[in-house]
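Protein in question kept in full:
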Amino acid sequence: QVRVVDSGGGLVQSGSSLRLSCAASGFVSDTYAIGWFRQAPGKKREGVSCISSSDGSTYYSDSVKGRFTVSRENGKSTVYLQMNSLKPEDTAVYYCAADHLSSCYDMKAAFGYWGRGTQVTVSS
């Protein structure tokens, strides 16, 4: 059973930075993808960023490209989302998700394992 634990959210001012962490475990193979989704009140869930274990390829949504960076700790299934130049519109609950996927597939594939989410609030 894959277990996903996400953390690192908080309340920050516009222009600040935060780093989210995702500790995933229980994969039955070395091929998996770990992604970050977010959901703001009244809005649809959005795929923000993802990294693939097979080749290290990454995906970013247009809304965060150039400001967020996803990385994976070498040899481990721990993933970080470095969020810089945060904006009030980045305010949301951020969820880490994982699954045995060979690619991020632009985050359109189904992720079966989810963390509980961590709140990110950016004040203006």
